[in-house]
Request: fold
Amino acid sequence: MGNSLICRTKKDTKDNGSRSKRKGRSQRKMLAEEEFLHKQALSMALHQHQLSQRFDGSMSRRIGSTSSRRHTDPLTNNEKKVLESLEKIKFKKIVLLHGEGFGAWCWYKTIAHLEEVGLQPTALDLTGSGIDLTDTNTVTTLAEYSQPLIKYLENLPKDGKVVLVGHSSGGACLSYALEHFPEKISKAIYLCATMVSNGQRPFDVFAEELGSAERFMQESQFLIHGNGKDKPPTGFMFEKQLMKGLYFNQSPTKDVALAMVSMRSTPLGPIMEKLSLTPDKYGAGRRFYIQALDDRALSPDVQEKLVRENPPEGVFKIKGSDHCPFFSKPQSLHKILIEIVQIP
Reply:
């Protein structure tokens, strides 16, 4: 009996040791995989920086097509119809604008897919974002923040027009452009974005999640005081775990890793600025809104309120998408963008 008890005790000890070793190996494997993903994301970010040398100013680089399926497999009848329809479109240029903290890098999947169907996408780094080296603490107005877009529109041919797509707070830049360059924009597409009305601030859209602007300016732990603690805040940046919960609750791990090594602080002035929008300029523009239905940064209820109070020409919805459909639901996003581009 005693021997039996001793044997069982030794066996239990051995089993516990084996489990502990397996657990240790599992944890090391998880850490190794996480480290690999971060290295891979960093490599992508560095690669994007090298490719950017092909472009002028802060205009985005193209990350290159990640899929060659359409070039190797036979096209379906539906794909042929889409391509034929897109060939007849007069304005094929699509300008992609990122949201707060992001850069042109976030559109790498979108660029590849739109190029495959013959469209001409260009992603821009807004001032102080992506690889634009401007200190975000010096960017105080929406006009300054939107300078790369303003320069792009000013350099278009006299009769040239583009489709603008703005994500999140980048929607404010869309609205600014519609007001100041209405003749240059064929369509404006707000992607779970700040489609504010006249007299509103982009920040007001996020008040449900972040509280009032006044309270945020006084109490938020995410504020950056670039000119000293005794001076007004100049920017903000969320803690990484909070960003993951707000922005990336449905996004692939690799894209989240890319975002974690690429996101930068956001200038505070532009999103606290009240927009002046007129009926004959901004109001005459063709606006479309794409809702993300699993968005935790800009809830579906808030997005619904935006389109109800400031009705666009069309509203589209993406099920199962977080705040970043270009990561979480790229195929759905691309289909909707192509559909909107084809609207006469």
Summary: Residues 70 and 76 are 10 Å apart (CA to CA). Residues 1-14, 48-72 have pLDDT under 50 and may be disordered. The radius of gyration is 24 Å. Strands lie at 93-97, 120-124, 162-167, 185-191, 223-224, 235-236, 266-267, 287-292, 314-318.
